[in-house]
Amino acid sequence: MKQPVAPPAWPELFNRYGEQVGAILSNQLRAEVRGKNEHWDHLHHLTPPAGLNAEQWWLGIQFARHALGRPVPPLHDKDGNPFKVVPSDSIQRRLFLVARDAAGALQGADRMPSDAMRERYLLRSLMEEAMTSSQLEGAATTTQVAKDMLRTGRAPRDHGERMIVNNFLTMRELKRWLDSPLTPNVVFEIHRMLTDGTLQDPGAAGRFRRADENIVVQDEIGTLLHSPPPARELPQRLCNFANLVDDDKHFIHPVVRAILVHFQIGYLSFRCCSRSNMKT
């Protein structure tokens, strides 16, 4: 994993271009570049708009992003800085498409003429999701072999097949918690189901990491990429955001909320994990 090039710091940019801010803003730069949320790592290789250098371009884009950005309390980093969501044009379009297509699929299932047909449709959807998500996580199993295994109920023969079975069985059980608040115990139970038979240390499943488990995220050559918050903060941090109630003043799109919950679990590194990119 290549570590991205860090962008110039805000104070540094203001020291250089503070007197030119008006001219930079007159370019009416947007939060995205041709529909993409470019990071400095890639942006500084692109050709900036006429009259601007890469740093001035970046400064203008950052102004646009800050104008759109909204904090999502209680999500914050280790230093107490709030994480923000920037609902740019392309993100809003994608959220619309996801919501429209997902709603259409669910409504299509509801309109099926029999309960048996609806159950088969939902079962196929769960199978597809279990296979796809496991393959993204590294399960080296072909789709056809995985389908045959899930359809016949055959026992998994290797680590990749076990991941697929675990994902499938867990997703079938998630409806048990649909109307309940997310709690650490619920997360632990889900984690135990997902990792059953896949961890080098089975005792690492279904619990917070301990203070003596110094989990960090490194690349293949040992470069530190992420050091999560202290273990003592995990009980409070883990579920607070997921249980926020939407109202007229604070609404977070369900897809964005799901993404942020996923991000939060990774950022916290709540469990002791033996994957190759997490080291103790």
Automatic annotation (TrEMBL):
InterPro entries named among the record's database cross-references: Fido, Fido-like_dom_sf, Fido_containing
Coiled-coil residues are: none
Fido domain sequence ranges: 181-267
Q: What is this protein called?
A: Fido domain-containing protein
